[in-house]
Specification:
Helix content is 36%, strand content 28%. The chain is of the alpha/beta class. The protein has a domain of 113 residues: Rossmann fold. The strands form 2 sheets. The protein has a 6-stranded parallel sheet with strand order 3-2-1-6-7-8, with helices on both faces. Strands 4-5 form a two-stranded antiparallel ribbon. The two termini are 25 Å apart.
């Protein structure tokens, strides 16, 4: 599906927090093993680095299994401890944004790829998508309806609804 939209070397950037909530909307989970296989099948030898940005919670040791699986599957994993932010008295929000880290990796590696695939629907990434396009990069956005900003769709060379890839990337127990 994506092989006709990519050119040259392909790097993948995955905003895991955004994808976590996207999965809730989709009603099914994504297998990162199958996702890697999908990119291998579609991009072949042109597939380069695959980055995953995910917040960790030291009070949830079961996350180690997830992080280990990512590393076994050759993802470059960027982590930081989740922050608990007080919204109002007794109400907290958990934050683990990686907008800056993803942007830095994209800029630091810009000479090494021709196509960037971004798995996120967060409009905060619009400036980096715009910059990559200005620098001649192709940008493919993968997300889902109700989790994708119109701005990202308009800026991208191609938007792919993850729902269409269910048979290829769904996690099955």
């Amino acid at each position: 599906m994506i092989n006709k939209f990519v050119k040259g070397r392909v790097y993948v950037f995955i905003d895991a927090a955004n994808i976590f909530y996207t999965q809730k909307t989709l009603g099914w989970r994504i297998s990162y093993e199958k996702l890697k296989q999908y990119f291998n099948d579609e991009c072949g030898k042109n597939l380069g680095k695959m980055f995953v940005y995910t917040a960790t919670d030291s009070e949830r040791p079961q996350q180690k299994k997830f992080l280990d699986m990512l590393e076994i599957n050759e993802y470059i994993v960027r982590t930081k401890e989740v922050k608990r932010i007080r919204v109002t008295k007794g109400v907290y929000e958990w934050k683990g944004d990686f907008d800056v880290e993803l942007t830095i990796d994209a800029m630091d590696n810009a000479r090494e790829f021709d196509t960037a695939i971004l798995l996120s629907g967060d409009s905060d990434f619009a400036p980096i998508v715009k910059r990559m396009k200005e620098n001649g990069k192709k940008v493919i956005i993968m997300s889902a309806k109700h989790h994708i900003s119109r701005e990202l769709i308009e800026l991208s060379d191609k938007y792919i609804n993850l729902k269409k890839l269910r048979d290829k990337i769904e996690f099955l127990k």
